[in-house]
Amino acid sequence: MSKHIAKAAILCILAAAPALAPAQDYPSKPITMVVPFPPGGSTDVIGRLFAAKLGARMGQTVVVENKPGANTGIGAAAVARAAPDGYTFMITGAPTFTLNPLLYPNLNYDPIKSYEYVAIAGSTPFVILTNPQTGIGSVADIASKSAAQPLSFGSFGNGSTPHIAGESLAQRTGAKLLHVPYRGSAPAMADLLGNQIPLSIDTLVAGLPQIKAGKARAVALTGGARSNLVPDVPTVAESGVAGYDFETWFGVVVPKGTPAPVVARLSKEIEAVMAEPDTRAKLEQLGFDATYSDPAAFRRKVETELERNVAIIKAAGIKPD
Q1: Exposed/middle/buried for residue 9 (C-beta within 10 Å: 0-12, 13-18, 19+)
Q2: Which residue of 42, 172, 192, 194 is most buried, as measured by CB atoms within 10 A?
Q3: 176-200, pLDDT tens digit by residue?
Q4: Phi-psi sector, 137: left (phi>0), alpha (psi -120 to 50), beta
Q5: What is the pLDDT of residues 221-280, one digit of tens each?
Q6: Does an H or E element contain 181, and which?
Q7: CA dist 218 to 141, 148, 214, 280, Å?
């Protein structure tokens, strides 16, 4: 080996050392998991489940830190500014990455440039609900009934994923739909059950008790596949709208620049946690599927949904409140 080749080899080893070192002894101190929601919600519950499981697997305490506010923007910005060493990460819902950047121009984070993607850790579809008194039983019924008179559909907020899903349904089927935003699922559900609105799009978690009680009818699921929780309910895609796929999912990210070996370790540990039977059972109890995506698939999903959502928002003229 020539002196030049030997020197080059040594330089390569030295250059790789900073990235390898943190991975070899990672984690060597407690880790902070940021949840950009208040305590008690579904993201917080799932975050605390993962914190306990990851802490046990990795031999370090994982501390949950709630940073709510600004539609998850406060927590997301804090993680974007954190040291890229693997000791701060965030679990949050899809809108943090795929809707907020399209609706709020002054965010202190960028969904692509601010983070390294770690994993998608659970998902659930939304469900199109109707009051049984409407006689609506299918996506085709929605299109046909709205031809004579536009149908109102409720969601838990302007610019929410259910709002976007409803606008997409209208754009793709020609249905005449009018969006009615509510401040949360509960008031939207109350008006649906009272037949004040004919349709609502909500999480399956929120809709399931009313579906089982026969107070609301599940017309179709918005995700790409049926759910074990309501196996007889078809998807919108199965109902003739090919490729239609809207769901809520939980993503785990770390600050941009976190060493790749650390990202890979976190991702593999999350995958292992999700494979545990009691984790899957708990997620299902909460109404979520234990769907895992690795960093590359997670990034592709964010990029795809950003591209899709910007077109829907532009066509519908959606503006933030």
Answers
A1: exposed
A2: 192
A3: 999 999 988 899 999 999 999 999 9
A4: alpha
A5: 999 999 888 999 999 999 999 999 999 899 999 999 999 999 999 999 999 999 999 999
A6: strand 177-181
A7: 13, 22, 10, 24
